[in-house]
UniProtKB/TrEMBL annotation:
GO terms for cellular component: Gram-negative-bacterium-type cell wall; type II protein secretion system complex. This is General secretion pathway protein L. InterPro entries: ATPase_NBD (IPR043129), GspL_cyto_dom (IPR024230), T2SS_protein-GspL (IPR007812). One of its GO terms (biological process) is protein secretion by the type II secretion system.
Amino acid sequence: MTPLLLIAPLPPADAAGEYDWAQAGDDGIALRDQGRALLALLPSGSEVTLGIPSAALSWHRVTLPKGSMGSASKLRAVLDGLLEEHLLDDPEALHFALEPDAKAGAPVWVAACNRIWLRSIVQGLEAAGRRVVRIVPEFAPQAADGPPLLQITGEPEAPQLTVCDADGVVSLPLAGAGLALSGSLPLDTAVITTEPAVAEAAERLLERRVPIVKAPQRWLNAARTPWELAQFDLAATGRARAGKKFASVLQTLRYAPEWRAARWGVVVLLLTQVIGLNAWAWKERGALESKRQAAKTILTQTFPSVKIVIDPQLQMTREVAALQQAVGDVAATDFEPMVGALATNLPLGRTPSAVDYTNGQLRLRGLGLQPSEVSQITGAMAPRGYNVRTEGDLLLVQAETTPR
């Protein structure tokens, strides 16, 4: 679920007062729900995106000198000096935020707002258990290669026209602006939208049909831009900034329309892999089952007396051993072949003081073998199908249950 979007109330509203809020659906784009409520009565959700109204922001264009972005404190001091003559308030009383991917030596946009007011809103939300993960502006300047945005908002008695383009953000009364629209605004290339309450006035002055976008949906669209106002003292650590940057990128990859084809491609790739793995596993299970059936068939055809097959290999070994005993032949578990195999691998001069053979296990005592000699005997006997180990001064030899 996407974070809850809250619209910061303008002063003198209290931080614990009422907030307009909006929440997107699972696609992160379409409006799912919206309303207005006191902070304590807002919908559940520990993470929020805070929207800053246009009336609380001012925009300034500056060129950062080389080396000014080495540290946050140095950059802040540079901004104070560059903007001092362009501000009505003391720079120390303002919060600044640079445009995304700002670089020294090139013109950049700087957003400014009242620092005390913004900090009080953020602290009030976090004190209520609402962690602010992003701070976004209602309107922001557009890229030079992008179309201008003309957004008509407000109430029927006082509609406002906000123009967002490469020259910044300008808001003015719609009635006054309508007199100069035809000559100063690029209506043919601009993206124009209006809120329902002022749609009639917008269409009358522009003399055209204007797409209607509700304010909550417009705020959700603003939250999908790369702008991030939580900078300097509001971005406490580099880790916090990196986390917000990662969250923003993840949000874009998950919900942005331009990444829809890539998301579907990933889904198709995963489904293909799952289907392929299941098909391969089914084929392997079939092959294994065929081998099991073949082993059962061989056992029952060779030894018709076996009616119930549980472990074909073990049962085959036992039946072969029983058959050898019945015809007087010797098996690997018999005393003679076991002693013969061991005798050829014992060190010269080593004679046991006692020999015992019981149930396929040969025990020899008194050989006095060294660990290296035991290892040598074990290695030599293993290819012939015998396990060799020691218990104190006993040397134990036993045929493997499963033949090699």
